């Protein structure tokens, strides 16, 4: 009897050890913490397996690339300010201001220079003088043309020349050819002021020209001076045009850069929202986790 009791105690002890080892394996299998107040919530029939559901959300601080492009389209650099790229904004705004000022200043210089050379032409070049010299030297220019066939000079009752018949002058110029390559536009037109200082056929309309010359290719100092004045005006306008081109290019560059800068800004601001699901004995609990990172 004594030995039977001892055997029974030994069997119970061995059973207890076996049960504890098995329970320990279950705890490890179910990822229990060993804390009774916490582990009691988990179902013994279901492991406390965490089910993660991750959702990427748009940050409330994200910015609109389209809006950035619109800002820069209105004022270069404004989109960069919106995107937080202040150094690039300062550079673009400075370039814009410099280009606009350059365009305006040199356009005004071109206008002033144009007025100056037009006044010079009005004082020193005469269409009557040009027509008279041409009629007097038709035989030296093109001997096949009869000057008497053209009624160019308009005279008063005393025989003084008061003007010209412009269509007749153009008809003579066309008939002469051979160096007379252009027909003179009416006085005051832009082409009028261009031609009289560009082509030798108009050289003897200048008041310093020697009217006894028979070769229209002989240029006077006035012709050369006038040509230089026009070249200066054209240079001013060319500089103004360059300023305008820079303005347009600066707008386009700022638009594309603003869109790119905002895109980089939005990519650098990463927001992750993770929901962890815990299966409990009588319910499932959702535990939200928010991860925020900003990359420089």
Question: Can you give a write-up of this model?
Answer:
The chain has 296 residues and is mainly alpha-helical. It has a domain of 157 residues. The longest helix is centred in the last third of the chain and has 48 residues. The protein is rod-shaped. About 10% of the residues have low confidence.
Q: What's the helix count?
A: 10
Structural class, from helix and strand content? mainly alpha
Strand content: 5-15%
Q: How many E strands?
A: 5
**Helix-strand pattern, N to C?**
HHEHHHHHEEHHHEE
Outline type:
rod-shaped
Arithmetic mean pLDDT: 80
The end-to-end distance, rounded to whole angstroms, is 82 Å
Radius of gyration: 48 Å
Largest sheet: 3 strands, antiparallel
Order of strands across the biggest sheet? 1-4-5
Low-pLDDT residue intervals, each spanning 5 or more residues? 11-15, 17-30, 45-55
Question: Fraction of residues in helices?
Answer: 55-70%
């Amino acid at each position: 009897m004594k030995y039977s009791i001892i055997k029974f105690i030994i069997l119970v002890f061995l059973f207890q050890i076996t049960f504890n080892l098995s329970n320990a394996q279950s705890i490890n299998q179910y990822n229990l913490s060993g804390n009774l107040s916490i582990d009691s919530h988990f179902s013994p029939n279901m492991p406390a397996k965490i089910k993660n559901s991750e959702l990427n959300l748009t940050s409330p601080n994200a910015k609109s690339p389209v809006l950035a492009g619109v800002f820069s389209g209105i004022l270069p650099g404004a989109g960069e300010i919106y995107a937080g790229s202040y150094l690039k904004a300062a550079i673009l705004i400075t370039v814009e201001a410099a280009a606009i000022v350059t365009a305006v200043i040199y356009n005004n210089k071109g206008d002033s220079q144009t007025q100056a050379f037009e006044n010079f032409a009005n004082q020193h070049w005469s269409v009557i003088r040009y027509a008279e010299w041409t009629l007097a030297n038709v035989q030296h220019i093109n001997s096949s043309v009869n000057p008497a066939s053209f009624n160019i000079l308009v005279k008063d009752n005393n025989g003084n020349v008061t003007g010209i018949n412009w269509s007749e002058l153009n008809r003579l110029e066309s008939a002469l050819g051979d160096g007379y390559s252009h027909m003179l536009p009416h006085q005051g037109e832009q082409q009028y002021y261009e031609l009289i200082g560009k082509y030798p056929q108009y050289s003897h309309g200048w008041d310093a020209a020697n009217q006894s010359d028979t070769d229209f290719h002989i240029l006077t100092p006035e012709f050369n001076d006038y040509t230089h004045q026009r070249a200066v005006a054209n240079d001013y306008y060319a500089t103004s045009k360059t300023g305008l081109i820079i303005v347009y290019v600066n707008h386009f560059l700022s638009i594309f850069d603003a869109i790119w800068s905002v895109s980089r800004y939005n990519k650098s601001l990463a927001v992750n929202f993770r929901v962890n699901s815990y299966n409990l004995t009588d319910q499932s609990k959702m535990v939200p986790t928010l991860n925020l990172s900003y990359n420089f």
